[in-house]
Amino acid sequence: MPAVYALNLFDVADRDEYLAYSQRSAREVARHGGRVVALGDFREAVAGDIAPRRVLILVEWKSKQAFDAYCSDPALADLHPHRERGTRNYIWQLFDRLEDLRPILKS
User: Fold this and answer.
1) Are 18 and 82 within 8 A, CB to CB?
2) Which residue in 17, 44, 61, 105 has a CA-CA distance of 20 to 30 Å to 31?
């Protein structure tokens, strides 16, 4: 099962709601096989047509199954709504982990 990266880009809509999520989510992400690789605060748009988001979080998951288990764990049903209410303009995309770009560049 190959690792996947979850790219999270968003704006904070409600500080208290997002704090309620973030205070518990790091522990739960780790418990489900995830590891926060990077946190970022938007600096500037250099290229592209996507509207900037204030926050970047990049999470490496042991597998897609680990990510899915985090998202669907019934014990976390009360956690995910805090993320949903605490953010806006959310982009959540999964990327396969690659050692290099050769698989993409093959003709």
Assistant:
1) yes
2) 17
Total domains in the chain come to: 1
- Residue 105 lies inside a defined structural domain of this protein: no
Give the predicted TM-score (pTM) of the model: 0.91
Cα–Cα distance for residue pair 25/106, rounded to 1 Å? 38
Closest C-alpha to 43, from 30, 52, 35, 33? 52
Structure token pair of residue 75: 């014990």
Q: What is the pLDDT of residues 78-88, one digit of tens each?
A: 999 999 999 99
Q: Give the list of residues 6+ apart from residue 98 with CB closer than 8 angstroms, or none.
A: 104
The two tokens of residue 44 are 């500037």
Q: What is the DSSP letter of 101?
A: S
